[in-house]
Amino acid sequence: MHRPLHTLRRFALVPLALLLAAPVVFASGCKPKAVRGGAGTENPNLDRAAMSTTLDREDLNYLMRTNLDRMFSSPWWASLRSAPEPVVVAIWPVKNDTSEHIDDQLNTLLSDIETELVNSGIVSVVSRERQAEMAREVEVQQNQKIYDGRYAADISRQIGAKYYITGKVGSIDERINGERRVQYTLFMQVIEVETSLVKFQFKSERSKAIVR
Predict the structure, then answer these.
(1) Please, are residues 172 and 183 in contact by the beta-carbon 8 Å criterion?
(2) Which ranges of the chain would DSSP assign to H, the alpha helix?
(3) Domain span at 182
């Protein structure tokens, strides 16, 4: 029995249609999906995984936490606890001495430090917005002068701060035999405004590497 030619053509197209549809089905099965990480999720350690050797939020949190823990246990901090009333502290920008563009991360770092100090109840903290206003008035905003201790002391004095906190992030990049290691540091100081005496300083460290 001979089938009409148009019927044979219709059946011949079926395998071709299936072949064309197969990649679509396969691709949909491999479609990436978004996942949520952090405390209270099914991926609590997602934020802790290193994606590269660049400085990330987890690294900065560690560097900040290490410095603050040391500061909170220092003789200077102990002297503040016995003060009749909270002293005023200003927080100055942390200088970026690395080759990475981490301005947003450093702004977050400053906000976290500000929050820690405010919640301690031991000191009063000058709003960083007010400090920025004062900096603009003396034309040091977006200028290397903002990291100059003389300017920091002058503005801190004008806003009534007894101490100001400053610091810098640095890095050392090493490469050998196809491997790479970057050592990051966060250096922090507490300076007394009137005397320029260093009341506290510490440097925390963090290393990241790419190995074969």
Answers:
(1) yes
(2) 5-29, 57-72, 75-81, 103-120, 128-137, 149-158
(3) 54-210
